[in-house]
Amino acid sequence: MILPALLTSAAFNIVICVGLMSLYSILRKQPYNLKVYFGQRLAQLQPGQKNHYFFDRMIPSAGWLVKAWEATDEDIYACGGVDGLVFIRLIVFCIRMFTVASVLCLFIVLPVNLLGRGIEVIDPETQMDIFTIRNVQEGSRGLWAHFFALYVISICAYALLYIEFKNVARMRLEQVIRFPTKPSHFTVLVRGIPWSTEESYSEAVRKHFSSYYDSSYLAHQMVYRSGTVQKLMMETEKMYKVLTETSINQYVQPITVGIGVPTNPFKMGTSESESASKKDKHEAKSHKKEQEECPAAFVFFRTRYTAMVASRIIQSKDPMLWVIDFAPEPHDVYWPNLCVPYRLLWIRKTLVYIGSILFSLWFLLPTTLVQGLINIGSLERTFPILRGISTWTSTHVTSDAGGSLEQWLNMEVCKHYFRLSTKSGADVFCFTCAACNADVCYTRRIGTWWDRMGKLTVTGMKDMATLLGNLIPGQAPFFMTYIMTSGWASLAYELMQPFVLIVNWIYQFVLMRKEGYGDLYTFPYHIEVPRALLFNLLGFTFCILAPLILPFLLVYYFFAYFVYRNQILNVYITRYNTNGSYWPVAHNAAIFALIVMQSVASIIFSMKKFTTASTMAFILIIFTSLFNLYCRHKFLPLFTNKAVQDLIEMDRHDEHAGKVEEILSRLLSSYNYKVGSYSGNHPTDLLAAEYKKV
Amino acid sequence: MILPALLTSAAFNIVICVGLMSLYSILRKQPYNLKVYFGQRLAQLQPGQKNHYFFDRMIPSAGWLVKAWEATDEDIYACGGVDGLVFIRLIVFCIRMFTVASVLCLFIVLPVNLLGRGIEVIDPETQMDIFTIRNVQEGSRGLWAHFFALYVISICAYALLYIEFKNVARMRLEQVIRFPTKPSHFTVLVRGIPWSTEESYSEAVRKHFSSYYDSSYLAHQMVYRSGTVQKLMMETEKMYKVLTETSINQYVQPITVGIGVPTNPFKMGTSESESASKKDKHEAKSHKKEQEECPAAFVFFRTRYTAMVASRIIQSKDPMLWVIDFAPEPHDVYWPNLCVPYRLLWIRKTLVYIGSILFSLWFLLPTTLVQGLINIGSLERTFPILRGISTWTSTHVTSDAGGSLEQWLNMEVCKHYFRLSTKSGADVFCFTCAACNADVCYTRRIGTWWDRMGKLTVTGMKDMATLLGNLIPGQAPFFMTYIMTSGWASLAYELMQPFVLIVNWIYQFVLMRKEGYGDLYTFPYHIEVPRALLFNLLGFTFCILAPLILPFLLVYYFFAYFVYRNQILNVYITRYNTNGSYWPVAHNAAIFALIVMQSVASIIFSMKKFTTASTMAFILIIFTSLFNLYCRHKFLPLFTNKAVQDLIEMDRHDEHAGKVEEILSRLLSSYNYKVGSYSGNHPTDLLAAEYKKV
User: Fold this and answer.
1) Does B644 reach chain A within 8 Å, measured CB to CB?
2) Which of B170, B629, B637 lies at the smallest CB-CB distance from A314?
3) For A118, phi and psi rounded to 5 degrees?
4) pLDDT digit string, tens, across residues A198-227
5) Which residues contact B193 (CB under 8 A, 6 or more apart)?
6) How many CB pairs below 8 Å do chains A and B form together?
7) Strand duo A293-301 + A187-191: pairing
8) How far is Cα A386 from Cα A274, in angstroms, rounded to an integer?
């Protein structure tokens, strides 16, 4: 890689990005692009307000950057929930981290590299190496600069990671207090209800919970099977009921069997009016028989405390029976999956896990192939005439193709996953899978190393380490280009939304449909988080070895800060909120990056005959592991639990304020199949709605 | 390895073992060896009974094998607790498993191996190979026999493992019901009590639990620091109290601060008699000031259910504060460790973990060295004259030296560990560490392969696999010798207890001390379980490749069955009961062995150009992993939890029987530093005592 070529590529990319951003600031003002660029805003408005409100606000808005900058955390939270906020925290962490690293490495490490005389003959192929640690001579005292930078960066990383983990954990806990009346606080999801010929599932649930949670068991709601045939039957039945003049209302309401709340709007089987409700009960029973019950139910409790206790402990001697979990929010329930027997769930999870590994391997195949074909070095050797332009175009094309493929495949997996398992687990998987992809991106390059190393005769571990240490600094130019083409370009793409934009134009001007095209999308965390983490890994790996990569990264993160804030505020809606539960993945990725940085530094120090620093760098790896353990002990339990103190305080507060009965009566009608169905065609911004309610 | 040499070695070992066993049956009848061979029986007897009882029973007892055979599970349980029972189940599992494997492999696989013509020239060095799979030709149809055996053995293993896991889980659950009045059911151990300048730890505990567990919080007992200085101070204080005529009794009793049980023998701060006990309170307070409080306490509840709930949920927003665990049994408490702050515990655990790895590596060093020196092959080449006897002596010596070293080091680590962490965690570690050692034993041999492979030029993974597949069957004779020298010999050693025997003789006949020598030992699970598992691994790895190893293994397990039953019944006492919590380790080791067997089979099938079977064996690996996942889902939660149903039933039963107050009053005095102290010089068989009580 020649320096002028890199600079040309950088200049070209910057011009493209600035051009696209200017274009965006023009396009977003056009009223016919409203649906493309302001999906989130439109969703929050009442239908009537639309025209006035948006024209008033949009005419003078050239400075979208200023708006993105001025938005408070509260605004981000209102639009993107905790997830959006946590994602912005991740970007901020990277900016802070690499600002520190840039100051240290550009002003202390880079001069040392430049002044070293490790590379004698400067030929165009290795021209870039004078900026890397390879230019420092063996045993040089200049290596202390690298060592110093390594330690300061590591310590900064520890501090920043600790602060961010703490922040995210705090945000999660505050969520519980922020929405005290959420039905999920009072509700648990029971699976694996034991089958008996004598009683129905519903009776088994009632018996179990009224026996063991007598004082605080409120009611329960069974889950019914809803295949296509079931749906058809339900429709027919509905028609029949209409014809025989039975109230539809009774049908749409879920069948909730309880032991009585005074203000319960649809009492069924209350202990006080047992005889009176016998007819009702009978009716409900015959009704239940018609629909097929699943061995799953939502159980409602009087207090948040009992709901949490029930979900944390093992009920019976067989851990596969009476499995209790926190209930998801009503609008997060993916009903068809609730009927999957619990004993099959782990098989599905395992299959998805195996599938994700196979998928990653399969994804590795074409990219390695393309990389192998359009490898700059081999191309240059075959067609020397291409030398000039091949530098940027080839990498550009490859990376973009790879990037698109990656995005497309990612979406595929997520779609599949939504069919495979409950929605509540989706986030976890998406990120594991996507983080896996991030690794794949990285191993894409390592793959070519592997080939190279495979050809050599490996005689021991030490030689392998030396080989790795020699190869890594030389890869910096490739990754600089990668950051430009994959990182900067993706931000411009994200901002412009070219696909939706063009389809919208076709709808409006070719098909002459006034309403235009533009669906409400959710933020693609499963693509953006791994991308940010991948660049994080690149930054940590190369910051000491080849500091020239840092400006490229900082530019990416600064742009990302503005772009993603803008997108969260204006474009994407929040359909499902994980409450930032992907942070531990991000934290682990950062720890992994730190360990890679320290291991590579340790290897290179020992290659440069600087054993003290090598040993000290190795000790740093142990410290990093300990730090990680500490963070896991300190914060990770908060991601799977709620604190008893909070819940009991909230319960008491409700009791003093006399709001209990009101909350409980609302609770019973909250898990409604019709409302909660995820398969609806017009999802509404439920979080925003909920926020307004509060 | 030459066949006659192996047979000589086997005959020699059998003669030694049978001789030692006959000697044992004579020695055990001698009254002066009582303390050596009947420690467990002596501990269960009252001092007065001793002479009559034992002479009556001992004179005709030539058939100790019969007695060991006739003992019921109930007897084993009475002497060795659940741990002893589970260990016997492990041996039984191995016997069943390898009986099936022997029938299949000796009658189907071995003839195929013998009739194959894969090895043309039979030279003495590879004479044994005609019994292995190496003698089967490439593409031979005889390999279907191996394939069939592989599948049948795998399926048998699944069934047996499932049954045993279920049995052990059931036994653990039954323990809870069997000892309904155990104080640990009602008690939790609280650590990480937050520090405040305004109130003492004790007050903080009282405030927290009476606020959040109002209805069922009974009392609590602080833990006090007890260093050497503290002990001296306590002694002085005690003397002073005696001199000033204060009752010592008041001192020895722990200071229990509660909110009142009618029959509480030492009411302190009961809500009813608050004014009356003010003086008491003041006294207790000044007393507490003198001793230094630790941020740890035992908290007692009125119901088992609440105790379990409290120990399963997170109390506060900081998971490092108010950390609640199941309380250990009173006699299992290692008091000095309770004062270790919770925030340091994870560091200690990590250090122990790192230490165990380093220790294993360090242990690898001398054994590899000795093995390298006394390698049969190199010896034979250097001194051809030694050929005849080197076959068994060298391995004998090495293995015994290694074994003794292993035992000694194991003991060392355990001792250290008891000082490092709470006793309740000890078992987990001992087994991790010891299982690690088992692996080390195995890698001892792999280590020499590694050297051999290191010298070869490795060009790819495939060659490595081929190399491994070629080497493994050839190692069978070594491991046959290993089973004889390390396995059979260790059983004879275990039975004879030569060290204690000789010391006892010296005490009685040289030093003329009538009482003799002989301490009460606990069963060395940390040595015996990994040994059984190691042989299990050997059996699975070689059963299809070299079936001749199976008879040696079966002999070992049959002897082990009798010897260990005898030892559990007669020699060892139970000082600490893990309730079989080491079973998951054993299960994992068995799964690992299965996977090793299937991988090696898959490699060797593909080497023999039998691709169908190779693929099918690979599929079996996936099945094994899935089976393991299933077992973990199904049974593992029972090893860390108690079932709510059981606890609530027990609570209700007590309430109906009116035994609650009696149990609670006994509870408060149970966690007594004096009684519970583990450092006592004369440990009594507490389990046996408890058993009698029930």
Assistant:
1) yes
2) B637
3) -75, -35
4) 888 888 888 888 888 878 888 888 887 765
5) B201, B204, B205, B295, B296, B297, B321, B322
6) 96
7) antiparallel
8) 88
What is the per-residue pLDDT across B244-286, written as a single tens digit (0 to 9) for each?
644 434 333 344 444 444 333 333 333 333 343 444 444 444 4
Q: What is the pLDDT of residues A222-231, one digit of tens each?
A: 887 765 555 6
Interface probe, candidates B321, B455, B645, chain A, greatest A C-beta count within 10 A: B645
In chain B, domain spans:
3-180+346-642, 183-328+651-693
Instruction: Round to whole Å and give the CA distance between A181 and B365.
Output: 63
Give how far B3 is from chain A: nearest CA, Å. 37
Please tell me the distance from the alpha carbon of residue A523 to that of residue A528, in angstroms, as a whole number: 9
Q: Would you place residue A400 in the very low, low, confident or very high pLDDT band (cuts 50, 70, 90)?
A: very low
- Write down the residue that tokens 């069924």 correspond to: A268
Quote the crossing angle between the two packed helices A73-104 and A143-178, to the nearest 10°: 170
**Helix axis angle, A426-455 to A525-542, nearest 10°:** 40
Beta strands in B354-412 (DSSP E): none
pLDDT per residue as tens digits for the range B410-424: 433 333 333 333 333
What are the CA-CA distances from residue A362 to residues A19, A340, A347, B289 (Å)?
A: 36, 29, 22, 68
Contact A317/B646, CB-based, under 8 Å? yes
Distance between CA A505 and CA A516 in Å, rounded?
A: 7
Q: Which residue of B has its CA nearest to A209?
A: B645
Compute the nearest-CA separation of A413 from chain B (Å): 22
CA A84/CA B451 separation, integer angstroms: 54
Quick check: B585 pLDDT over 90? no
Q: Are the C-beta atoms of residues B548 and B473 closer than 8 Å to each other?
A: no
Whether residue B568 contacts residue B523, with contact meaning beta carbons closer than 8 Å, is answered with: yes
Residue A619: is its pLDDT beyond 80? yes
User: Using CA atoms in the order A400, A406, A411, A414, what is the torsion angle rounded to 10 degrees?
Assistant: -160
- Among A212, A314, A648, the residue with its CB nearest the CB of B212 is A648
Q: How far apart are CA A470 and CA A468, in angstroms?
A: 5
pTM of this prediction?
0.73
Diameter of chain B measured on Cα atoms: 99
C-alpha span between A172 and A83 (Å, rounded): 10
| Residue A188 contacts residue A284 (beta carbons within 8 Å) | no
| DSSP conformation class of A300 | E
Element spanning A207, H or E: helix A201-212
pLDDT at B619: 92
